[in-house]
Amino acid sequence: MKKYNFLVLTEHTKHSNQNSLYALVAELVQQEQVNQVYVASRGNDENKAFFEDRNSSKVAATLADASFAYEANGTQFLEGTTTVDIQSVDVVFMRLPRPATDEFLEHLVAIAPKQVFVNNPKGIIKTSTKEFLLNFPSVCPPMTLCRSEKEVLDFASKYRIVLKPLREYGGKGVVKVEDSKVYAGDGEPKAIQDYLMEIKEELETSGYLAMKFLKNVSEGDKRILVVNGKILASSLRLPAPDSWLCNIAQGGTSVPSTVNPEEEAMIQEIAPVLLKEGIVMFGADTLVDDDGKRILSEVNTLSIGGFPQAEVQTGMPVVKMAIDEIIAYVNQTLKQ
What we know:
6-stranded mixed β-sheet; globular; 10 helices
């Protein structure tokens, strides 16, 4: 039986004790097809040549065991590390949050062409922008990519809308446009023209996704965790009182949920497309549309969280299920 060596890439300085990395790694090292698991952090200054300068294929990494757990001081990522060459491992497990630049992600594939990635960096580049949703119009609310003031105003003349910067996360930069006013969180509204002047450069160079605002947003944003094409769990994030933002980082709360048949069909449509891009793990977010049906509002493919929390909510071994599916994907990929 083939045993694999894993290299996990992360950024420990951005972690809390809720980060899924620790539960996933602690489970991964116990998998019978896993030999060793190394974890390297972008937050270790010794790794600047790898993560920033991009002139080395080697990292200072921690050799993890079943006791691998969160430490507030992050000492485990900084002391007693071992030098690991990315080209020497079988699998690279991406648990790296933004900012992970497209240039760095492209570089990873170039220096590790024979390694299996979970998720594939080139696939992350293609799918982690909100623009990717435009590939699935049948399961999404009305939306369009805007690169000019006129395009925003034209779309806003048809609906109340939400504007989203393409590569932000956690609800950052998301605003609602209604009656020529722009609402960002709980702040005072701005005139649409003033707001468009503020974002003019980013709008014209990167673009914004404009999406119809759904009146049933108070029914919550459901996060569905998918690994290797299989739905493992879901949770419902409800907005704070008097807010329309469901993100936990923006004051929302998370409660257990189940996946309905509409959402199952949705995942069956999008999961094969993502797998073809090397996206093994993703989070799909759904909202209730104006007709009372759940539709796709976002796909997250960079560093998916929520696995240990879903395990607590459901009583199911969600973390082990995720690792089992990752190993199944690696086995299948290396046989091809």
